[in-house]
TrEMBL record:
Sequence intervals crossing the membrane: 84-104, 109-127, 147-172
Protein topology in the membrane: Multi-pass membrane protein
Subcellular location: Cell membrane
UniProt-recorded name of the protein: Lipoprotein signal peptidase
Catalytic activity: Release of signal peptides from bacterial membrane prolipoproteins. Hydrolyzes -Xaa-Yaa-Zaa-|-(S,diacylglyceryl)Cys-, in which Xaa is hydrophobic (preferably Leu), and Yaa (Ala or Ser) and Zaa (Gly or Ala) have small, neutral side chains
Enzyme class: hydrolase
Function recorded in the entry: This protein specifically catalyzes the removal of signal peptides from prolipoproteins.
Disordered: annotated segments: 1-22
UniProt KW keywords: Aspartyl protease, Cell membrane, Hydrolase, Membrane, Protease, Transmembrane, Transmembrane helix
Membership in a protein family: Belongs to the peptidase A8 family.
Annotated source species: Nocardioides panacihumi
Entry's EC annotation: 3.4.23.36
Gene: lspA
Coiled-coil stretches: none
Active-site positions on this chain: 143, 157
């Protein structure tokens, strides 16, 4: 019954030996699912934010803890490097290819989800840079989530942060991309 349902708890907490692990197709599908869901939520929320928050003051969601505040960011994190938008776009395109190549080797649920979310975050912001004003490779990223004392961000940024956390967990646990555990001395 467990094999018929897909991912088992042992796949998340204790990787299976390579000989008994399911085919790579399952993990690639999980990467694709995490990517499509993350990218879809990111793009839909950006369209809604641009449409409904333009020319509007901050909208409290959870008091002053979380507010909606529309900004357009031509730079990187913390709006740094705004004069390097084309370079940032090219780096994001390269990063997309690198993550796809690495994701094809994932053989655990957590690695697959992490790499799918990372891909969603990178391509979410890259999509803005490709399709939004002022033009291709120079587009501004839509940011709209605001926390106190933190730069305004978006769902793509959340995906990247969650991916980083999952990657750290897997590294701490010593779980390689292929699902094998590293020997600890």
């Amino acid at each position: 019954m467990q094999a018929a349902r897909g991912a088992s708890l042992s796949d998340v907490s204790d990787p299976q030996p390579a000989q008994t692990r399911p085919r790579p197709t399952r993990y690639r599908a999980l990467v694709a699912l995490a990517w499509l869901v993350g990218l879809g939520v990111d793009q839909v929320t950006k369209v809604l934010a641009a449409d409904r928050l333009s020319d509007r003051s901050d909208v409290p969601v959870v008091g002053t803890l979380l507010q909606l505040h529309l900004t357009r960011n031509a730079g990187a994190a913390f709006s740094t490097g705004t004069q390097f938008t084309v370079v940032l776009s090219c780096l994001a395109a390269v990063a997309t290819v690198v993550v796809v190549v690495i994701a094809l080797r994932a053989r655990t649920v957590l690695w697959s989800v992490a790499l799918g979310l990372l891909l969603a975050g990178i391509t979410g912001n890259l999509t803005d840079r490709l399709l939004r004003a002022p033009g291709v490779l120079r587009g501004q990223v839509i940011d709209f989530l605001m926390l106190p004392h933190w730069p305004v961000f978006n769902v793509a940024d959340v995906c990247i942060t969650l991916a980083a956390a999952l990657i750290v967990v897997q590294a701490y646990r010593g779980v390689r991309l292929d699902g094998r555990r590293e020997e600890r001395s």
